Amino acid sequence: MDNRTQFYKKLKKKLKKDTSFPTKYLFKFIVPSDEVKISQVEDLFNFAGAVITKNTSKTGKYTSVSIHIIMKKADDIILKYQQAEKIEGIISL
Length: 93
Hints:
The protein is 40% helix and 30% strand. The chain is α+β, with helices and mostly antiparallel strands and 93 residues long. The longest helix has 16 residues, at 3-18. The model has no long low-confidence stretch (mean pLDDT 93).
């Protein structure tokens, strides 16, 4: 089993143990300050109820994107992280 699979398996177990669903969940990502990449992150959560905030680093090279959203189950959270992984240069926090 590779590291990503183990990570998501562990995350799912922790979410099921510590979280009652539906829940308001906070996703945090760091992306290069490129409008295309920032838009790609926003588009992952582009449905009703998502509150998205963005902050640019002091140097302007990176942007943190925080998304508060109601998630129905652990699998939905993991799916969003897996979709976000496909964005070049993204760091999930």
